[in-house]
Amino acid sequence: MAKHPVPKKKTSKARSSRRHSKFVQKEQKYLKDLVHLTKCPNCGAPKLMHHVCKECGKYKGRQVFDMNKKIEKITKIKA
Ligand SMILES: [Zn+2]
Q: Tens digit of pLDDT for each residue in 44-73?
């Protein structure tokens, strides 16, 4: 006989998948509640609360960064 606690029955595929689906549902809701999206008053694009709008570069009606300047993606590291 085993000296440590041992499950009496094997957990069925349906039971474990049901448990997993509930876990996923809960986590998704938690992550959704963490991110607060609002509409940008200038362009109407969805943006993060208390953050600069990525579409027009404005925050509280003030131009924070110039959108005409294109920022090139860093693909190589120059050493
Ligand atoms: Zn905007």
A: 899 998 999 988 888 988 888 777 776 666
Predicted TM-score (pTM) of the model is 0.48
Separation of 71 CA from ligand 1 center, angstroms? Answer: 18
Picking from 48, 67, 47, 46, the residue whose alpha carbon sits closest to that of residue 56 is 67
The answer to whether residue 37 scores a pLDDT higher than 80 is: yes
Question: Ligand 1 is a single-atom ion; what residues have CB below 5 A from it?
Answer: 40, 42-43, 53, 55-56
Residue 54 CA from chain centroid, whole number: 16
- Six-digit token string for 45: 């694009």
